[in-house]
Input
Amino acid sequence: MAIYLPPLKSYAPFYIQRGTDTNAVNIRTAYGVTIMVHEYPSKRRVKEVYKNDWKDRDGDDEWNESLNYEAFTLKTKCVIFTESSNSSTSRQELKNAVRSFQNAIRSGEFKIYDDWTKFGFRKVRLDEFPEIGDGDFDEMDGHCRLIFDITLKVNDPTTEMAFANNQIVEA
Output
């Protein structure tokens, strides 16, 4: 039995690159994990600027030579399939594949790049990863599937990243 990658016409890869990796990895082909939905923040919050509020003057004096943005979380809904719907074997196979993906991103920081939105970030880390329970699986068209959510924390929201020569690099 193996992980099944259903054909998707307009799917664009989602890449991760850990600090020690020389190349970025497409999580769909490497782990069988397909990104269904991700929630990039449409408005990023600016960090509070340094300021003094003088009692004898109106307003306040602000020092904002360059605006910096606050870190944010990126919520992502993922799906993974097996080729068969044999309940116990398929479920265990999906759990193992998801654990393999989790192990790849759970320690340290990494870079991400989404080819669909053309957004890339560095200094990303895993924030939340679900525990997989038996109620999380379902059967669909002769395949067993598992849908799960992960949350990533983006600690460098300002450095623009691009994908070039199979690497995630500064734009």
The radius of gyration is 20 Å. The mean pLDDT is 87.
